[in-house]
Write a structure and sequence with these properties.
The chain is an alpha/beta fold. 68% of the residues lie in helices and 7% in strands.
Length: 414
């Protein structure tokens, strides 16, 4: 046991003091913050300061479209209204071609029928403006019809604006709490991303550490004082501690940002995100279980490889469960208690990610959480049994890549 803790301490200090740990611990949150900030600032400029022209035979409809477009204070667009004639179309299209005008909305009004609309723009990917024009045209058309039917303009504006629907989640104890589907989706998505990313990163760190020590022949010295099983256990514990340290730093930083006045102002209204004690307790549990499952498997497989390039062949094994989990995200968030959602949350390779996606929508029954954890523990025991036998023989094998028959012999003989 003393050798296990010595090896764990060595692995922990070696990685924590390394440049990569410091860069990822500080740099990764900074990169995410920069991405979010740049995306927010870029979105503020989408559709801003555009010069648009609305052409229609129906002047009232065109004026209403103009009013709808100008009501967007963020856009700060210039919108001109002209009479729809072929001469105007030719002249404005020439301005669109020369970039003097950013877009032309041509509305053909037909008596007794709904109008048809065509949008001309220099860009084929200008879907933001096209979507805004569609909404403005639809709202203007509704207002024109309702006003002509005798409804007051203020009532028409209220109808066009729509009615907000407040959503509440009814818990098993009867308590009702405010909820928001989009906020729940992003909460589950971010936590699943963090869980999958850290699990795979540190699982592969264990595998790379095995490769590096194998190629440097340091194992031959370490085996003089420690058993292979102790070395594997110490390596897993040490790297797990590194992962928990980094996650703790990230969570502390995120909490400090989350409770700041700036974040409080940004998270008001329907985008409030709530975290439960269950999620806070189960996150490190599923991190450790997922990490042990992947890292123990890749430690054994790494012992059969000679270089990190050979190790890359096993990367699809780590990525496939993640791809499967995120491919089911819409199904899980829409119906967290469906048969496929429950089975995926019980299947050990996908359990950590899927279970947190389910919890973001609705907390699963305790027996499902307990069964999920139990199946992961059993799977970890089986993978450790398999990997320890590969590790015991593979770390001293040099010169060639191990074939499948040789790997099976290692498992049988050791």
């Amino acid at each position: 046991m003393n050798n296990i803790w010595l090896i764990a301490k060595r692995e922990y200090l070696e990685q924590v003091k390394g440049r990569a740990f410091k860069l990822t611990t500080i740099g990764l949150p900074a990169i995410f913050a920069a991405i979010v900030g740049i995306s927010y600032l870029a979105n503020l400029g989408i559709g801003a300061n555009e010069h648009l022209v609305v052409a229609s035979d129906d002047t009232v409809l065109a004026k209403e479209i103009q009013a709808r477009l100008l009501s967007d204070k963020k856009g700060k667009s210039t919108v001109d209204v002209v009479k729809a004639t072929e001469a105007e179309r030719t002249a404005i299209l020439e301005q669109v071609r020369t970039r003097a005008v950013d877009g032309l909305l041509w509305v053909d009004s037909k008596p007794g029928a709904l109008p048809t609309a065509t949008y001309y723009s220099p860009s084929s990917g200008d879907f933001i403006t096209a979507g805004g024009l569609k909404d403005a045209l639809s709202d203007a058309l509704i207002k024109e019809h309702l006003t002509s039917a005798g409804m007051k303009e203020a009532d028409v504006d209220a109808v066009v604006k729509g009615i907000a629907v407040d959503t509440y989640q009814v818990k098993k104890d009867g308590q009702m709490v405010a909820s928001n589907a989009m906020a729940s989706f992003w909460k589950g998505y971010v936590m699943a991303i963090l869980l999958s990313m850290t699990t795979m990163i540190y699982g592969m760190n264990v595998a790379r550490s095995v490769i590096q020590e194998k190629t440097s022949r340091i194992f031959e010295v370490m085996l003089a004082i420690a058993k292979p099983e102790d070395m594997l256990a110490g390596k897993l514990i040490g790297v797990a501690a590194v992962g928990m340290t980094q996650i703790a730093i990230w969570l502390a930083t995120g909490t400090a940002i989350f409770i700041s006045p700036l974040a409080a102002a940004a998270m008001t209204g329907n985008m409030k995100i709530h975290f439960s004690w269950t999620e806070g307790i189960l996150f490190p549990v599923y991190f450790l279980l997922g990490y042990l499952l992947y890292s123990s498997l890749f430690a054994g497989l790494a012992a059969t490889c000679e270089t990190e390039q050979e190790l890359q062949m096993y990367m699809p094994l780590a990525a496939a469960p993640t791809w499967l989990s995120f491919a089911m995200i819409l199904l899980i968030m829409n119906d967290s208690n469906s048969v496929w959602s429950v089975l995926a949350s019980l299947f050990p390779p996908t359990a950590p990610i899927v279970m947190f996606l389910r919890m973001a929508s609705q907390t699963p029954p305790l027996w499902q959480i307990g069964l999920s954890i139990g199946l992961m523990v059993v799977s970890i025991w089986g993978v450790l049994w398999f990997s320890s036998r590969l590790y015991r023989v593979g770390i001293l094998m040099y010169g060639k890549r191990a074939t499948l028959p040789e790997i099976l012999r290692w498992v049988r003989y050791s």
